[in-house]
Amino acid sequence: MGLFKRKPKTEMTIEVLQQVLEECRGRVASLVHVARSLLFFLKEFSLDIVEIDAEGYKKTIDAIAANLREDASEKDILRSLEENKLSIVSYIDREKAYLLEKEKELKNIIELLRSALTDFMGETQTFNSKIYEQNVRMEAITQLDDLRKIKESLRAEVSQMKRIIQEKQQKDSKRIETLSKEVVSLKSNLEEVQAAASSDALTGAYNRMAFDTKIQWCVERNAVIREPLSLLMCDIDDFKKINDTYGHITGDRVLKGFVLECKGFFRSDDFIARYGGEEFAILLPGMPLKKAIKRAKELCVALAAKQYLIDANRPDQKLQFTVSIGVSELRKDDTVDSFIGRADQALYRAKHSGKNQAVSEKES
């Protein structure tokens, strides 16, 4: 009967259970990180094409990512995927169809260019034939014995050759000029549309919409590829007083002047945007907090030391303005709101501690 006795159950100690739970949490965190990284790559792989609603596709990816948390239930994660997967597949199909259509258009353009080149080569062949005929006639002239006839014939043939060459040059010049104008016009129109969509009309800085897109991308990218990123929230001191004292036109010039100073002060890949009113946001990629606060303080000093003419006819009347700045650095688990929030808190402290200064998030 001893063969049928039950073996005693092995009881799991609390320490072992905690260790298993920690391992599970670690795996869950790793899986969440991998999934978020893949979602980010899916967004990056998408082309920014308005016609196929690329923006809607990115919002769909964001909706899935929002439910992908370590504390989210399995039901919520699966529900989010089920609700959005058809939309993702539909977008992929639209993008494929769009690319195929553009490929056909490109082939048509290549065919047009080939046809134009064929015509051009045909004209060149005609031109070469005419030149060859001229050479034959000139060679025949050399067989004449009468010097007077040789001279007259050569003069006529040279004149004819000059006319043929000039006609060819004129045709080529007109064709090249027309094509050049079309290329320049297309390039200019494209650049104007792109600039208008992302720029603040008054100051020339990036607008709020462009900033929101940029900082969201930076936060998502930082979750996958870690690198320093600092944010400066800048507010022009006593701007209402400047408007009330000197007028809104001068106030607008102050805003323009601030952006102009920043463009000369910061690097070409730093992102300067008008956040709203007299407030500006500056993203400094690759720059840690310590260096960012140093640059911010240098900007405060540089602006405070400058004087600006209000009216060219009144050189004695000059204006000075200062700026207060709050600085934060992106952290591992930051959201866009938390990243901006710490810079805003630092800015609040700068404003209420005397203005004309830069304050780090660590100080606030």
Question: Helices, strands, pairings?
Answer:
Layout: H1 14-45, H2 54-66, H3 74-141, H4 147-198, H5 208-224, E1 229-236, H6 239-246, H7 248-265, E2 271-276, E3 279-285, H8 289-304, E4 308-309, E5 318-319, E6 323-329, H9 336-351, E7 358-360
Describe what you observe in this structure.
With about 375 residues, this protein is α+β, with helices and mostly antiparallel strands. The protein is built from nine helices and seven strands. A hairpin with an 8-residue loop joins strand 4 and strand 5. The mean pLDDT is about 80.
Brief overview:
Helix content is about 65%, strand content about 10%. The protein has nine helices and seven strands, in the order αααααβααββαβββαβ. The mean pLDDT is about 80.
Multimeric organization: single chain
Portion of residues within helices: 55-70%
Structural class: alpha+beta
Q: Which strand order spans the largest sheet, edge to edge or round the barrel?
A: 2-3-1-6-7
Largest sheet: 5 strands, mixed
Radius of gyration: 35 Å
Q: What is the residue-averaged pLDDT?
A: 81
Element order: H for helix, E for strand: HHHHHEHHEEHEEEHE
Count of helical segments? 9
Shape type? flat
Distance between the termini: 76 Å
Strand tally is: 7
**Proportion of residues in extended strands:** 5-15%
**pLDDT < 50 runs, ≥5 residues:** none
